[in-house]
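Incident log, structure service

09:12 report received: a user says their structure output differs between two submissions of the same chain.
09:20 pulled the input from the user's history:
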Amino acid sequence: MLTAQECSHCGRNNSGNTPIEGDASPEPGDVSLCAYCALFSVFTDELTLRRPNADETRWIRASPLCRRAQMALVFGHRMLVGG
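09:34 re-ran on a clean worker, output below:
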């Protein structure tokens, strides 16, 4: 079981993970979307989080699935706070 991970951007602990596709646990190189700041991090070999490098950032920005997940999270936050 994966323990809480600290976001590489905002430092908040994300206490769980839900795969967007399939039912697998995260593996090194997989991306993670922070539930607090809505920015992406990448799992290391030790399954901690780090900021994406330039190539990974380009891939994330080009991924329709990543964009949809990020927009759904941002839209969900706005609905909760009434904005």
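09:41 both user submissions now match this output. Likely a transient worker issue. Closing.
09:42 reviewer note: The CA atoms of residues 8 and 15 lie 14 Å apart. The radius of gyration is 13 Å.
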